[in-house]
Amino acid sequence: xxxxxxxxxxxxxxxxxxxxxxxxxxxxxxxxxxxxxxxxxxxxxxxxxxxxxxxxxxxxxxxxxxxxxxxxxxxxxxxxxxxxxxxxxxxxxxxxxxxxxxxxxxxxxxxxxxxxxxxxxxxxxxxxxxxxxxxxxxxxxxxxxxxxxxxxxxxxxxxxxxxxxxxxxxxxxxxxxxxxxxxxxxxxxxxxxxxxxxxxxxxxxxxxxxxxxxxxxxxxxxxxxxxxxxxxxxxxxxxxxxxxxxxxxxxxxxxxxxxxxxxxxxx
Length: 267
Known about the structure:
Layout lengths: L4 H7 L18 H5 L3 E4 L4 H17 L4 E5 L7 H11 L8 E3 L9 H14 L5 E8 L11 H9 L2 E5 L4 E3 L11 H18 L2 H11 L6 H9 L3 E11 L11 E11 L4
Parallel strand pairs: 1-5, 2-4, 2-5
Antiparallel strand pairs: 1-8, 3-4, 6-8, 7-8
């Protein structure tokens, strides 16, 4: 990624006045969270998916929970983290494996926390306790992840939501250019991933994440461990051009910013 990629993410917040956050009001996620389900929100460009994140924030505040557990993605922003992720692909262990209350320079929950604070202030309420955690290097086995017991305890009394950009595609991500429609490819990839996660093993899901360049291999695996198998409904996919994040602006390159509702049953 370009050296200024993080700056690009943070500057997106300046576009708040230009974003129609009310678009997210068409989704009522409160009942899903109240009944033991969950939601997945993206962390791609705020200008493209801010309304999706806002929908999850509102669901968390409206569901009546006293606690909200939100799990963030750990991006490979440093050489140390990149090396740890590379070892994981070889099924090796790392001292960085665990659940963390914060990660230096990590931005995956930045937009969520911004909108949380904004909505709490707008409502003038005392909010539920917000517990933010970053699972890292689940390595196909969330049950043995250091710190998982803490998450299990929190999940019993919390609404649970996670962030993930569920599909990256294109030249910048090592894919050869294809002719299929980006939206159709993303939708099929995301559906297949959640089906595998619900019905298959964590190792199978890990392989899907590597293939589709999903950064959900930690957060979604932990979510299933905490809540059990869930049925996914894709509420919206926004195809976001991400080529400007990389040196040379390799195109086509995109991220599928997706809002997903997860329920205990199909009905």
